Amino acid sequence: xxxxxxxxxxxxxxxxxxxxxxxIASGHAYSSIEENARAASARGLELLAITDHGPAMPGGAHxxxxxxxxxxxxxxxxxxxxxxxxxxxMNYDGSIDLDEECLAGLDFVIASLHPxxxxxxxxxxxxxxxxxxxxxxxxHVIGHPGDARYPFNIEEVVAASKETGTLLExxxxxxxxxxxxxxxxxxxxxxxxxxxEKNVPLVMGSDxxxxxxxxxxxxxxxxxxxxxxxxxxxxxxxVEAFLKHIRIN
Length: 249
Prior knowledge:
TIM Barrel, 249 residues, globular, 8 strands
């Protein structure tokens, strides 16, 4: 008689938040804030950060867009909304395209290296740019650090993440076959390994430019699972832990 096969089921902790989502204000995204919130609600998310591109991005949101985000309700479709931005890192000192007054009016800010805004630098230049941005208290996350066109010293940037509390993003969009950032997989795997070694948490972002992608992390979750990165160190699993980490009540 053939022996019975035993199975061990491990329940996966649900993702409750998405920290990287674009609306039509970004210029090359295709959904409204309300449509993104509705999609997030349908997926059971409790928190969504609206992070439209800063004004230095061609076609990006005007500075008035960010100042006027105060008119948005705190919740849309039952989802808590963080009024944010994806700022552009503009130089190798880590300066961004949003001033202190604008940052003070936002809940949440990602800072990213984008080709239209800063040239592909050397490893030293890119590392300095990231760390400089991380030392800005108005910035909470470094966006899509896996972009192979911007090589950086992973150990130094992870150390800065631990020191400043500025999170590094595992960007789901970067890991798709259609990504504009080929080579992200290997860089993000190494980043996850160093973060695990140094006990530094990570956060996943969908980088949704259409509402159907809001709250989707299939590629990011697969990478982190294969890297053996523990769920308790992925801040998408707890709104309370995420908000505490970025010092938001």
